[in-house]
């Protein structure tokens, strides 16, 4: 069988190593996973109650239109019901956007070190990906704008950017949006939106009413702590959301996922508590990196990209042997590792282990 020619060399997405696999491979009893930017505090107790209540309905299909969740999210965000689409994680919304809008030969623009799913989905549709270098780990919106032409269909902006953790401000974003032609969709990926505390961060919901070509992506996988249930969403103008919905598969979010997301939205005290702890965790890790003489990018999500001064995969393997899973292998940052901000205990264990690993590597040089 012959696949599409454009997927012949398409890399398979590599998620963070599972805890169970590391325990089995290395014979470890305790493993800390700081690789996938999951919430170390889990999810709201209300989520668990909602899941329990849905268990008696497992034989029934979910609501294909996610009506209750749509209404809850519309109330929470202030957008209209017809401005929302749900997916199996925001990853699926990305795939649906490329399916709906890209044809072979179209161009889409992204940073040269950002969430890899933009490019992989564009590749599947035969589109050309224009990758623009980051500047100090941040999207260079002026340079991205200079690459916009009549073939450009989509510009992807990951804010905060994964893996660098940097943000573009509302002032920078609106100046960019003011100059982007109307035929170009701007997708603002805000998977880590709820973690950001910087006052310059864009109020993207407000911007939706000003820019008809803007689509905003968010997820329940991060601060809401229900990554395993795969619920993400997109928001935009009704006509744009309708077009994306036309290529969406039916029943793409589960009954349990929808119920859990409604309950998660309802518990904003839990979100606030997680944000506060995350902010403290960032400060602790950054201070420790400074003590160890390691440079890191400003962190606005729940992860930090830090330069360990040697090949990151070597450090990954040494940390893995000690039961610490982090992320490495970023092409533009070969000596950097990305670490999720964990609980205070997890953070302290990571720093202690990292210090031992770096000391061991230095002794071997």
TrEMBL record:
This is Histidinol-phosphate aminotransferase. The keyword Transferase applies. Its EC number is 2.6.1.9. Homodimer. The modification N6-(pyridoxal phosphate)lysine is found at residue 222. The gene is hisC. Pathway: Amino-acid biosynthesis; L-histidine biosynthesis; L-histidine from 5-phospho-alpha-D-ribose 1-diphosphate: step 7/9. It comes from Paenibacillus zeirhizosphaerae. Belongs to the class-II pyridoxal-phosphate-dependent aminotransferase family. Histidinol-phosphate aminotransferase subfamily.
